[in-house]
Design a protein that fits this description.
By secondary structure, the protein is mainly alpha-helical. The chain has 13 helices and three strands, in the order H-H-E-E-H-H-H-H-H-E-H-H-H-H-H-H.
Length: 336
């Protein structure tokens, strides 16, 4: 059966999960410009010289290099989605009833796409690593591309390992931004400034976003495994619902959800204590979490789990968009 060019293009965009790639790019952009930039602007430094000059820290990585970093990260992510569908043909037929790889995209073309996307992504990441003076950081992109391959080929079939790997990879996205921005900032200002305060504050703030991304992704991956339990069981996968049953999965999801909400309120109480964040957490994160818990606990149909999974994506998006609030708080000078 022949497919039109429009169908092939649409399926290719579906294969690389274009909306997810947009979220990856949005996450990196917001972390840099809504969180890291206000932090740099809020930290005064005194540049050595005669006389000593007061200034604020600025980015040392140019926006073009940052754009290459974003594109490279998205390319490697897209390659991961392609290889995932390459290995998931049988399970997707059972769980979804439709496939792309093996239909409009041949297995051979899928592997070609995977290789090309990875090569371009690793090349771009290595280039930016060289630009900041740490070319060895390019190894990180090689490791991520390899981990995505082995995740699809092996790890996702193993008990909880696949879920944790995906959660770590999602959490790595904001951390990539802070590493590639903090390294050149540290290299420059540690030499140019008197009593340089360091860049630890950048890692604390971005690390909070990364931890939230890890926990919410882990929750969503478990819910997705519950949704795909039938196909995973028939293909011999040892996921949490297949090995431990749906009751254990519900317990884990509830525990992780409550722990995440509790952690959000703890961070607010301990470090922020502002009204806007409290309202944001309560309305845009806690209430959706309650809905997720309710749907997962009472679910007796696949569509209930699918709804909970989509709700988790909204929670993750709300977590990213909190960067606007964080930037405003930092810029106001109420935190630092």
């Amino acid at each position: 059966m022949k497919h039109s060019r429009g169908e092939r293009l649409r399926d290719l965009l579906d294969l690389v999960r274009l909306p997810n790639l947009v979220v990856v790019a949005l996450t990196m952009i917001l972390i840099r410009y809504a969180v890291i930039r206000p932090l740099l602007g809020a930290i005064p430094v005194y540049l050595a010289g005669d006389p000593v000059v007061s200034a604020v820290m600025e980015f040392r990585l140019g926006w073009i290099d940052f754009l290459i970093l974003v594109v490279s990260t998205c390319l490697i992510t897209a390659a991961g989605y392609v290889i995932n569908d390459y290995f998931d043909i049988r399970a997707d037929l059972i769980n979804k009833g439709t496939i792309i790889v093996g239909n409009t995209v041949t297995r051979r073309m899928a592997m070609l796409y995977h290789n090309v996307l990875n090569i371009l992504g690793v090349t771009g990441g290595t280039y930016v690593s060289a630009r900041i003076g740490y070319i060895w950081l390019g190894i990180f992109f090689v490791l991520i591309s390899g981990l995505l391959y082995f995740y699809s080929a092996t790890y996702k079939r193993q008990f909880l390992i696949g879920n944790i790997i995906v959660a770590l990879l999602v959490a790595a996205v904001p951390m990539v931004v802070v590493v590639y921005d903090a390294a050149p900032v540290y290299a420059f200002y540690s030499q140019a400034a008197v009593d340089f305060p360091g860049v630890a504050i950048l890692f604390w703030w971005v690390g909070g976003f990364a931890l939230f991304a890890f926990l919410t992704t882990l929750i969503r991956e478990i819910i997705k495994d519950m949704e795909d339990c039938e196909g995973d069981r028939e293909t011999g996968r040892k996921t949490l619902p297949v090995i431990s049953g749906l009751l254990a999965c519900r317990t884990v999801v509830v525990f992780l959800s409550v722990a995440t909400v509790a952690l959000l309120y703890f961070v607010w109480f301990r470090y922020l204590n502002d009204t806007i964040t409290l309202v944001y957490i309560s309305l845009l994160l806690t209430i959706p979490f309650i809905i997720v818990i309710t749907r997962v606990v009472s679910s007796n149909e696949k569509r209930h789990l699918h709804f909970a999974s989509r709700m988790m994506k909204l929670i993750m998006l709300a977590g990213i968009l909190y960067s606007f609030v964080a930037g405003a708080i930092i810029s106001s000078g109420k935190i630092l």
